[in-house]
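Researcher: Let's try something more involved. This one mixes different molecule types, so please make sure each is placed in the same coordinate frame as the others.
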Amino acid sequence: MFELIEEYQLLSAFWMTIKLAAFSAVISLVVGTVVAIMRLSPVKIFQSVGTAYVTLLRNTPLTLIVILCSLGIWGQLNIDLASRESSTFLVDNNFRWAVAGLSAYHAAFVCEALRSGVNTIPLGQAEAARSIGLTFAQSMRQVILPQAFRGAITPLGNVLIALTKNTTVVAAIGVAETAYRMKALAEFEPALLMVGFAIVALGFVILTLPMGMLTSYLSGRLAVKR
Amino acid sequence: MSDDANGFPRPTNEPLVVLQDVNKHFGDLHVLRDINLTVHKGEVVVVIGPSGSGKSTLCRTINRLETFESGSITINGETLPEEGKALARLRADVGMVFQSFNLFSHKTILENVTLGPIKVRGAKAAAAKKRAMELLDRVGVAHQAEKYPAQLSGGQQQRVAIARSLAMEPTVMLFDEPTSALDPEMINEVLDVMVQLAKSGMTMIVVTHEMGFARKAADRVVFMSDGAILEENIPEEFFSNPQTDRAKDFLGKILTH
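Model: All components are placed in one shared frame. Result:
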């Protein structure tokens, strides 16, 4: 079994999965928050842009988005995300476009998770914030978002778990993560296919199980008492 | 300012909040009908009336938590801005106390009181904290400063909410049924704070069902029904000699027991 892990570089493949998930999680959290603020803002044009973003990205298959990033935006429009002089240009560029696609897609879900968190906040909180003279940005930053994040920990955790598993999609553009190695393994070691599956499945459980446990713990711990 | 017999300062003749021909609809419902009301600096105006008479809406319209369709509202001579930073600046000068307290649930009592002064007024944290502790002391909850709102009783939360408004040093304070969500034994602790505030000369517009407070602290009682102001009078006159049938009926129902 260890030979198998070594031969098909499964450890480095999992490390790649972790890197993809970590970078995409951070970026999608930031982008998703911005989109959520746009949807919550009183300005009509921002609302429309936010709504359009979510509708478009959430309803497009992830595979399509990732392949569009690689073949379309990079391949056709030649927009690089790494320096062409670099010896690791192809690997870096591919990785970054993969992160971009994953982030753009999951930001839509982060936005909706946050909005569900906002819905847990009584209207009076926003009214009180306004009535002491906080501007829209200040009341978002000081009153609404801190409570929205706490109320949205469980759905945000779901997005993180889905994101981690969805990283397997970027095998389609040749990023050497777990599913990519898994494909090679399936091709060259058909006899050990089931063992390979089991190892990969177990690896993902090891990654995602703590996320679920952590979000359950945090959602209880950080819940806003009313 | 000279004080009257009960130790309340007499209001001035300077108009502070002026509503002119204010109209508002909720769909088909005409919630505010040609409202004309002038509140002078230092005056305590108590707004009473049956449920659904529009008195809460009136109160919320004054700092634009509710929009209105026609008419004008000025505060200190300044027309209420429609939105944006100018509105935020004006709201900072208008204190608001809600029926459901609305303390920021994720912040401590102290943070609730210092948030506005620090973020809106640009006060230094240390100075804001010192002032907040004075105010919390004044409303009798200084020893709870590090707790969270949910750990306090309703009466204590409402007193903190008053301190939070006072920290902004408002020119006028609005009270939207401040004691309606409280257990009976907690009502007085909040009313006591409000009476003290009235004695200190604060301009107050109070929507309430507490007739005792109206008799004691009000300079003027405004009676509303079906979105219109039907009567305005000094408390003694209004309670002993209401002019309209609607007011007589209302007082008859609430003062019989």
